[in-house]
Amino acid sequence: xxxxxxxxxxxxxxxxxxxxxxxxxxxxxxxxxxxxxxxxxxxxxxxxxxxxxxxxxxxxxxxxxxxxxxxxxxxxxxxxxxxxxxxxxxxxxxxxxxxxxxxxxxxxxxxxxxxxxxxxxxxxxxxxxxxxxxxxxxxxxxxxxxx
Length: 147
Known about the structure:
The mean pLDDT is 89. By secondary structure, this protein is of the alpha+beta class. Helix 1 crosses helix 2. 36% of the residues lie in helices and 43% in strands. The radius of gyration is 18 Å and the shape is globular. The longest helix has 37 residues. Strands 1, 2, 3, 4, 5, 6 and 7 form a 7-stranded mixed sheet that branches. It contains 3 helices and 7 strands, in the order H-H-E-E-H-E-E-E-E-E. The chain has a single domain, classed as Nuclear Transport Factor 2, Chain: A (Roll).
């Protein structure tokens, strides 16, 4: 009986620890979309590492976007203009590296605009998770299950 209790306790501790770690990894991602929704450039700045890379896959190939330009564009919006609704499908963590995959649907001023998926690479710096790399896809079709 003691062995069963010990195994249950060990497994429960592992699962709880993993959930706590996942919440910490999710935090800068959730803050990114909260900052976009609230047009909060100060919160947005806190989500990225100093050397972060932002890219989008287009029909022409991979497009680079400057983080400072992205933050400036968000600051020009009004609260609730931007609403990116995500589903976190997968989180993988190894030490100070995390990978997160999030399908999304994007709404501009309340109207559906497009959908796609985000792929985040995060790094833990000074005990805090930051977005190091974000690449996304964007499309207007085959979005039925994402709206």
